[in-house]
Design the sequence.
């Protein structure tokens, strides 16, 4: 049974999972990792979640304000041993529900072509590819998505 808690970016388990995420992304993105890392600081994230199985942290995710009615999904990660079990979709659904409760109308996010599992996850969960936004405009390895929360 997976238990998901709502917290913020100061939670120790969230911080540890993000360290694992960053290590994975550094391998996948190589020299480009430093570019992406500057946009992935967690010090001001107010909406973060951590998933536990048998009290062991197995996944995390977060969102932050992007525009007045739009949040940006950030820091999605599932430990390798838990992948392929639907955990990431549950995490994404929890983030969307929380954003909806706070009256946000849409979610945007950026991932990279080096993360095909993430691309598949977002497509499976109703996200549509959109033009690259903000700091990702013109970045060849970035792929951006948007989903309206109806």
Sequence:
């Amino acid at each position: 049974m997976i238990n998901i808690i709502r917290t913020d970016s100061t939670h120790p388990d969230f911080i540890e999972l993000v360290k694992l995420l960053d290590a994975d992304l550094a391998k996948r993105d190589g020299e480009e990792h430093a570019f992406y890392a500057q946009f992935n600081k967690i010090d001001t994230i107010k909406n973060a979640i951590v998933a536990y199985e048998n009290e062991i942290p197995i996944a995390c995710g977060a969102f932050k304000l992007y525009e007045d009615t739009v949040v940006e999904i950030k820091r999605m990660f599932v430990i390798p041993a838990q992948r392929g079990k639907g955990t990431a979709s549950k995490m994404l659904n929890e983030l969307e529900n929380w954003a909806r409760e706070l009256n946000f109308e849409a979610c945007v996010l950026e991932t990279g072509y080096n993360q095909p599992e993430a691309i598949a996850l977002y497509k499976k969960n109703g996200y549509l590819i959109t033009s690259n936004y903000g700091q990702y405009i013109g970045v060849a390895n970035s792929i951006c998505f948007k989903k309206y929360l109806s």
In short: The mean pLDDT is 91. The two ends are 28 Å apart (CA to CA).
